[in-house]
Design brief:
Belongs to the 5'-nucleotidase family. It comes from Roseivivax halodurans JCM 10272. By secondary structure, the protein is an alpha/beta fold. The chain contains 17 helices and 39 strands.
Length: 654
C-alpha cells in the first residue's frame, strides 16, 4: 500500500506547473541560474491525520496529510525542489504509543509515520530527541522502513578521538545527487549535502535507553568536523538539519538550542531548525542575536523553522548560479506556509485540505489507534482538568502524584529505603502556552479511557525515585517557583506567569505543604541556574504539620527526565536516583485507576501563594476554565475577559 499511495501522491503533483504562478526566482532565472526550493517538515510527532486522539475528534490544526497539500503546490511552483524532515517524527501522540506498546515493530514492519513520510516523498531526514523515547531497537526497526536516508552527525555508537573517527549510530550526512534545470531549460548536476544534529541532552532525557550504548557530542563540534569532509567529498551546497532550537548566539559546550552558532560554521549554506515548536521567520524571534527575521536568516544564512505537528511547511528559496564549475548562492528567501488560520473570534479556518493518498496509507493504523485510546480503564468521581494547574493545586496533577506515590510505596518495600517518607513531584504538561487556548486536559467525571490517561501524561517517561534531604526538597520547589514573575506588593493586574518558563518544569510536590512568596525574586532562572542567592520564595514549608527538617531524608517519586537532570532541578540527578522502574508513568496511572476502580482526585490545596495585601495579578488560560471556577481551592480568582489569541484572562487577588 505505501508504494501505491506514494505513486498516487506523486502523480497528483505532476503536470500542473503550467497552472502555477511562478515564484520570482523562477521567473528571473537565466541560463546557468537555477531556482531551488527546499521544503521542511519538523516535529511531526506521528501526526498524520488531522485528528486529536486525546479529545477524539477531527481538527484542522495538525497532520502531515494537510502539510502534504502545500508540498504538492510547492512542487508545482518550482522547477527544482527538495523535501526534507527535521526529526521528532516517531513519538508524540497515541498512534506512536499504540505502535510501540500494543502492536510492536517486528522485523519487516513499517511504522505508520514512516509510511506517510514515504508517501509524501521525504528525501532525507534527521533524528530528533524523541526518536529515542522507545529505545534504540525500536528506533532502528522503524528507520529500516524509510525510503529516504536518516542522518545524525553527533550521536555515536563508539567515539573516536575526533568526531570524524566516530562510529555514528546512523550516517552523519548524505550527499544527494540531483539534476537542476536552469532558466534556459538546461539540466545541470548538483551534489546537495544534508547533515543532521540532535541535542546532546538525549543522554539525560533517555538515559535508560542510551547509557552504555551511544554517546552524544556537542552539535557545533560535530559540525566543524563533518562539514569540511562533505565539501571534500564534492558537496556543492550543504544544508544542516538542526533539530535544535534558536537560542543564544554564543557557543557553549553541550548547548541544547544551538542553531545560531551552528549557522556560523563555515561551509553550511542553509539551516532547517526545529525542536522548539515555533516558527521562523516570525515575530517570535525579533531581537534574537544573530537572527534577521525580515531577511529570514541566521548568521546571514537562510533558515526556517516550521512549527510542529505539521502545522506549517517551511520553505527556503535559493537562487543558485554556476560559476567556474561550482555552484554559489546568489539570493535567498525564507517563509512558512500554515495549514490553518485562527480568526479573532478563535475560529480555525483550514488553508488546505488533506491529501487522500497520505490518509489512505495509514488509515488502518489510524482506526486501530482509535480503538486503542477508547478503552475504559476505570471511573473518576470528579472532573480532571488543567486550566488552573499553574496557579492552584490541581486535580489533573494530583492524580499523577497519587499514582506515583502508590507505585513507589510498593517498590520501596523490602529495600533499604523502606520506611522513608515518600513525596511525589508532578508537573502539568497541557497548560496552554505555545500549545494554544485548547491545549489543556479536560476529562469529565465518569469513565476514564486510555486516551484520557495519555491526556493526563503526554510523554512515555518511566518512573524513577530519588533520595533527597529536606533542604533539597526546598531547593527543588524554589526551582519550580521560577514559573512566576516577581510581583511588587500593591501592584494592580501584574502579569503572573513567566512566558519563558515551560509548564513541564513547574513541579508540584505532594506530601509537603508550602506557600510561594511572589514578592521575592526567583531564586533560579528559567534554565535552573542559581540567579538570586539571597532570595527565598518558598515559605511555610511543612511536613506532617511541622516545619520540614532540612536534614531528613525523603524519597521523591518522579520520572526519568527529571531524575536524569532534565530541567536542572536541585537533588534530581543520576547520583540521587535509588530506583529506576521498568514501567512508564502512564502505565502506572492506568494500574492505579484499575486498582482503585473509582478515583476521587480532588486537589488538597497543599500549596498556594503567600498573601500580598491590595495586590492583583493576571494570567491567561483556556476559555473552558470558566466552568470550573468555583472548584478552585486556595485562591481568590475571577474572569476578566478574552485575549486576541483565543485565551481567557483571569484575575487573582493575592
Amino acid at each position: 500500500m505505501p508504494h501505491l499511495s506514494r505513486r498516487a501522491f506523486l502523480a497528483s503533483t505532476t503536470g500542473v506547473t503550467a497552472l502555477a504562478i511562478l515564484h520570482p526566482f523562477s521567473a528571473r532565472a537565466q541560463a546557468g541560474q537555477v531556482h531551488l526550493r527546499l521544503m521542511e517538515t519538523t516535529d511531526l510527532h506521528v501526526h498524520v491525520f488531522p485528528y486529536d486522539y486525546y479529545s477524539d475528534k477531527e481538527v484542522d490544526t495538525v497532520g502531515l496529510a494537510r502539510t502534504a497539500a502545500h508540498v504538492k503546490k510547492i512542487r508545482a511552483e518550482a522547477t527544482n525542489s527538495l523535501l526534507l524532515d527535521n526529526g521528532d517524527f516517531l513519538q508524540g501522540n497515541p498512534m506512536g504509543d499504540y505502535i510501540a506498546y500494543e502492536r510492536g515493530m517486528k522485523e519487516g514492519d513499517t511504522h505508520p509515520i514512516i509510511t506517510a513520510m514515504n508517501t509524501v516523498g521525504i528525501e532525507a531526514s534527521t533524528l530528533g530527541n524523541h526518536e529515542f523515547n522507545y529505545g534504540l531497537d525500536f528506533l532502528m526497526k522503524s528507520l529500516a522502513g524509510a525510503d529516504f536516508p536518516v542522518v545524525s552527525a553527533n550521536v555515536a555508537k563508539t567515539k573516536g578521538g575526533t568526531p570524524r573517527q566516530d562510529e555514528t549510530l546512523v550516517p552523519p550526512y548524505v550527499i544527494l545527487d540531483r539534476e537542476l534545470t536552469d532558466g534556459a531549460g538546461e539540466a545541470h548536476p548538483i551534489r546537495i549535502g544534508v547533515i543532521g544534529f540532535v541535542p546532546p541532552q538525549i543522554m539525560n532525557w533517555d538515559r535508560q535507553h542510551l547509557e552504555g550504548r551511544v554517546e552524544a557530542r556537542d552539535i557545533v563540534e560535530a559540525a566543524r568536523a563533518w562539514v569540511p569532509q562533505m565539501r571534500e567529498e564534492g558537496a556543492d551546497i550543504v544544508i544542516a538539519l538542526s533539530h535544535s532550537g534558536i537560542g543564544a548566539a554564543e557557543h557553549e559546550e553541550g548547548m541544547e538550542n544551538a542553531a545560531v552558532p551552528l549557522a556560523g560554521v563555515e561551509g553550511i549554506d542553509g539551516l532547517m531548525t526545529g525542536h522548539s515548536h515555533l516558527v521562523f521567520p516570525s515575530p517570535d524571534y525579533e531581537g534574537f542575536a544573530g537572527t534577521d527575521v525580515s531577511a529570514g536568516t541566521i548568521q546571514g544564512k537562510p533558515a526556517v523553522m516550521s512549527g510542529f505537528w505539521g502545522s506549517h511547511l517551511g520553505v527556503i528559496d535559493l537562487m543558485l548560479e554556476r560559476d567556474g564549475g561550482e555552484w554559489r548562492v546568489v539570493t535567498t528567501e525564507s517563509s512558512t506556509r500554515p495549514i490553518y488560520e485562527r480568526g479573532e473570534d478563535r475560529s480555525v479556518t483550514p488553508t488546505v485540505e488533506s491529501v487522500e493518498p497520505v490518509l489512505a496509507s495509514v488509515r488502518e493504523e489510524h482506526e486501530a489507534t482509535l480503538a486503542y485510546v477508547r478503552r475504559a480503564v476505570g471511573q473518576t468521581e470528579a472532573p480532571l482538568y488543567s486550566y488552573f494547574a499553574l496557579v492552584a493545586d490541581d486535580p489533573s496533577v494530583q492524580i499523577v502524584s497519587n499514582a506515583q506515590s502508590w507505585y513507589i510505596a510498593q517498590m520501596m518495600q523490602g529495600t533499604e529505603h523502606e520506611g522513608l517518607p515518600i513525596l511525589s513531584a508532578a508537573a502539568p504538561f497541557k497548560a496552554g502556552g505555545r500549545g494554544g487556548p485548547d491545549y489543556y486536559t479536560d476529562v469529565p467525571a465518569g469513565d476514564i479511557a486510555i486516551k484520557n490517561v495519555a491526556d493526563l501524561y503526554l510523554y512515555p517517561n518511566t518512573v524513577r525515585a530519588v533520595k533527597v534531604t529536606g533542604a533539597q526538597v526546598r531547593e527543588w520547589l524554589e526551582r519550580s517557583a521560577g514559573m512566576f514573575n516577581r510581583i511588587e506588593p500593591g501592584a494592580t493586574d501584574a502579569t503572573l506567569l513567566n512566558p519563558d518558563f515551560p509548564s513541564y518544569n513547574f513541579d508540584v510536590m505532594d506530601g509537603v505543604s508550602y506557600r510561594i512568596d511572589l514578592s521575592q525574586p526567583a531564586r533560579y532562572d528559567a534554565d535552573g541556574n542559581l540567579a538570586n542567592e539571597e532570595a527565598h520564595r518558598i515559605v511555610d514549608l511543612t511536613f506532617e504539620g511541622e516545619p520540614i527538617d532540612e536534614a531528613q531524608e525523603f524519597i521523591v517519586a518522579t520520572n526519568n527526565y527529571r531524575a536524569g537532570g532534565g530541567g536542572n532541578f536541585p537533588g534530581a540527578t543520576a547520583e540521587t536516583t535509588v530506583f529506576e522502574a521498568p514501567d512508564t508513568n502512564r502505565d502506572v496511572i492506568v494500574r492505579y485507576i484499575l486498582d482503585q476502580g473509582t478515583i476521587s482526585p480532588s486537589a488538597d490545596a497543599n500549596w498556594r501563594f503567600a498573601p500580598m495585601e491590595d495586590t492583583t495579578v493576571l494570567f491567561d488560560t483556556g476559555p473552558a476554565a470558566s466552568a470550573y471556577l468555583e472548584d478552585v481551592k486556595g485562591v481568590e480568582i475571577e474572569e476578566t475577559g478574552e485575549t486576541l489569541d483565543g485565551f481567557s484572562r483571569f484575575r487573582i487577588r493575592l
